[in-house]
Design goal:
The protein is α/β, with parallel strands linked by helices. It contains eight helices and 14 strands. It has an eight-stranded mixed beta sheet, with helices on both faces. It has a four-stranded mixed beta barrel with strand order 6-7-10-9.
Length: 260
């Protein structure tokens, strides 16, 4: 099976959570699956920007990205975070190749048109999954950071959830899993929803039941499901050990997002 796994939040920051995720990914590959990892690094970027004297601003869960912020994002995402994940998988004996969306023109971006303007924030306009498939043929794991090259030659900051969905669609993944620092999508009563239909997402957003970073995440879930990805699940990072059982047994963690 083909898996795309998105890592972000505390899952990248907390050593025990990161180790559990890496071990689960390595086990998936040992079991004969093909796995691609897409990652963010927003906490690390915010920390680096603060050290440089820049404040971070977010609108509807998306970071306002001027040219300087974009350059720092490229350094953090494609550098320290990406190569750290490659090293973590390598320490388990699992070969991994770190990429940005610009490498091999893997993903092409266009500027996201919003009001107010978000700067160098993009959305995926085209993809070439040959590079992912080539790494899979060598039993490797592509580790892809959420930056993509625009047709104008500029790098754009891509929301990592949207990047993961675009990756899953491009390589015709069987499953897209978001490993997060939350227990799942919560309903109006504050309880985690075990199942969520994409038809419910707009109403929950309108009622402010879902806000902030969960908005682009659920938008990405919807896009993936409507474009051929069979299963989409939001899973807490502490439950990463259940990844190898995701498609063969009942998993009692997180939220399964469905078409209907």
């Amino acid at each position: 099976m083909k898996y795309v796994i998105k890592l972000g939040g505390a899952g990248l920051e907390t050593p025990t959570l990161l180790d559990g995720s890496m071990r689960a990914i390595a086990e998936l590959v040992r079991d004969g699956n093909q796995v691609a990892v897409v990652h963010g690094g927003g906490l690390q970027l915010t920390r680096t920007l603060k050290a440089l004297g820049k404040q971070s601003e977010f609108i509807d869960g998306l970071r306002v990205t001027d040219a300087e912020t974009r350059d720092v994002a490229l350094m953090v995402f494609a550098g320290r975070v990406n190569k750290g994940l490659v090293a973590a998988l390598g320490s388990l004996g699992q070969p991994a190749i770190g990429l940005s969306g610009g490498d091999g023109l893997l993903f092409r971006a266009r500027k996201k048109r919003t009001a107010p303007d978000l700067g160098y924030v993009g959305e995926i306009a085209a993809s070439d999954p040959r590079w992912i498939e080539a790494i899979w043929q060598m039993n490797g794991v592509p580790v892809i950071c959420s930056m993509a090259l625009g047709f104008d030659g500029e790098y754009y900051n891509i929301n990592a959830d949207e990047m993961a969905a675009a990756c899953a669609v491009a390589c015709r993944a069987d499953a897209l899993v978001f490993l997060t620092d939350v227990s799942g999508v919560k309903g109006a009563n504050g309880e985690v929803l075990r199942w969520l239909s994409i038809d419910q997402i707009a109403e929950m957003a309108k009622s402010a039941i879902i806000t902030g970073g969960m908005l682009p995440k659920l938008g990405a879930c919807r896009e993936a499901l409507l474009n051929g990805v069979k299963r989409v699940r939001i899973l807490p990072a502490e439950a990463a050990g259940s990844l190898p059982d995701l498609c063969s047994a009942r998993v009692a963690h997180g939220t399964e997002v469905m078409v209907a």
